[in-house]
Amino acid sequence: MMYLVGLALIFLIVSVIFLRVYISSGTKCSLDRRLDGKVIIITGGNSGIGKAAALELAKRGARVIIGCRNKVKAEAAVTLIRRRTGSDAVHYLPLDLASLESVKQFVDMFIKQYGPAYALVNNAGYMGPKQMSHDRYDLCFQVNYLGHYYLTQLLIQKSKPDKSSPLRVINVVSDSYVNSLVDFDDIMIERNSYQVFDAYGRTKLALIWFSNELNYRYWDSAVTSVPIHPDSMLPPFAGLLEVQSVQTSYTIGQGLSGRVLRLMAKLFFRSPETGAQSIVHSALVGSLEDYIGKLVYDCKPIRLAAVAKDHRKAERLWDISWDMCPLEDLKMKIH
Ligand SMILES: NC(=O)c1ccc[n+]([C@@H]2O[C@H](COP(=O)([O-])OP(=O)(O)OC[C@H]3O[C@@H](n4cnc5c(N)ncnc54)[C@H](OP(=O)(O)O)[C@@H]3O)[C@@H](O)[C@H]2O)c1
């Protein structure tokens, strides 16, 4: 009997180790290129994958500007990244993607203080119950997609990247795009019932279309864009797992259940550092040519599902998004 219990125990331990190695492993970016002096914007760089990417990129010499809505959390992240990397070229600018006015102020401040960017990482995200943004749009749609669309468009129009000083736009998406659709007759999900995962997935599909359209419209390589999938962590937003001194509506409880969940996540799911590797890779790789029209996963370009390659829908969403943002005065709608 003891013999059987021992065997079962060994089997259990081996299975746990196997699961740990298999599930939580991921490719580490192996490129040793440096980005000294290159300016990189990361939205939502105060927690989770965005913070991990900011740290890695700062280590490699980049000037990292994190765009965040919470000053206290942003300053805490800047202090931590500076301390861990020894770089003082890490800064924060206020950015609330739920407000188009805030996005505009962010871009104005950024251009004034830092000039053109080398890369923009559209990382911030929201998934949750239906809410309205400041602009009366669906919050998930605006934070994940429209706010980033507007930010990118403004940055392009105001910093005018060209072949000699190009901009790379790295959109953080999710494989949930595969089963998603955008209902053009109900963009704000007012008629259909609001399903949290569907509402989230379609914003990631929209971001992939946006990447593809940027590459299509800036065929002269002034702007190149890739979507990256960081793989799944538990829960869907990595920052929830951080033990934070600043309590936000998102942070998982500090009690026993929170501790157990964090331990489980540490054991069996990817860390934000692993999730950030494809962002780091996309920023470091010499040319994105081989990655265009693909999804970056585990630092490699992989095929996109057919739904992501629908150019007509991507074009339609670009136009609708343009009209939803105060972009008209720039008179630079590119076709
Ligand atoms: N974790 C996963 O399993 C997973 C899988 C696939 C894709 N992703 C994607 O990876 C990205 C990062 O996720 P994460 O896991 O690192 O989650 P996270 O730690 O919760 O980070 C989300 C970030 O977005 C910011 N944010 C939310 N609403 C914002 C707003 N209105 N304006 C500006 N910033 C806002 C948050 O700021 P606050 O701290 O102020 O809330 C936070 O910095 C997201 O786009 C997510 O969809 C994650």
Give a written overview of the molecule.
- The chain is of the alpha/beta class and about 325 residues long.
- It folds into 2 domains: about 35-230 and about 270-325, 3-Layer(aba) Sandwich (Rossmann fold), CATH 3.40.50; about 240-270, no CATH class.
- It contains 10 helices and 8 strands.
- It has helices spanning about 1-25, 50-60, 70-85, 100-115, 140-160, 195-215, 255-270, 270-275, 275-285, 310-325; strands at about 40-45, 65-70, 90-95, 120, 165-170, 225-230, 295, 300.
- Strands 3-2-1-4-5-6-7-8 form an 8-stranded mixed beta sheet, sandwiched between helices.
- The longest helix is centred in the N-terminal third of the chain and has 23 residues, at about 1-25.
- The N and C termini lie far apart (about 75 Å).
- Residues about 245-250 have low confidence and may be disordered.
- Bound molecules: NADP nicotinamide-adenine-dinucleotide phosphate.
- GO terms for molecular function: oxidoreductase activity.
- InterPro entries: NAD(P)-bd_dom_sf, SDR_fam.
